[in-house]
């Protein structure tokens, strides 16, 4: 494996660890405007209080992604999950990683296989 691939894998695993280990109470609660979410690029996880990470995604504006609606929140509603038990964890991306966000997201999804991502694959 070349150095670039190793670096991407290492960064993806670092991001996954940060998302997974972020305490639920420190994640952004569901709101109409999502003002607590950054308007910047990032990798995010929709997390359930007891079930863990339900969905992994990426966006050029995490706040904008959720303000416009999100399919994972629709699925949580259809699964009758209590909205108070669903929150969003985010890791913002530095300039060097923004252009590789798709690869980072794919590595994280393959590693974790979140249930709401599996629905789309």
UniProtKB/TrEMBL annotation:
Name of this protein: Excinuclease ABC subunit C
GIY-YIG domain boundaries: 39-118
Classification of source organism: Bacteria, Bacillati, Cyanobacteriota, Cyanophyceae, Leptolyngbyales
Cross-referenced InterPro entries: GIY-YIG_endonuc, GIY-YIG_endonuc_sf
Residue ranges of coiled coil: none
Originating species: Leptolyngbya foveolarum
SUPFAM superfamilies per UniProt: GIY-YIG endonuclease (SSF82771)
Record PROSITE patterns: GIY_YIG
């Amino acid at each position: 494996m070349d150095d670039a691939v190793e670096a991407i894998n290492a960064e993806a695993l670092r991001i996954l660890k940060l998302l997974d280990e972020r305490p639920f109470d420190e994640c952004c609660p569901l709101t109409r405007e999502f003002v607590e979410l950054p308007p910047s690029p990032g990798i995010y996880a929709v997390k359930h209080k007891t079930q863990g990470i339900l969905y992994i995604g990426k966006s050029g504006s995490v706040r904008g992604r959720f303000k416009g609606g999100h399919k994972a929140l629709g699925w949580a509603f259809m699964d009758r999950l209590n909205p108070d038990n669903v929150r969003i964890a985010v890791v913002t991306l530095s300039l060097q990683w923004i252009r590789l966000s798709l690869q980072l997201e794919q590595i994280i999804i393959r590693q974790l296989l979140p249930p709401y991502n599996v629905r789309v694959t």
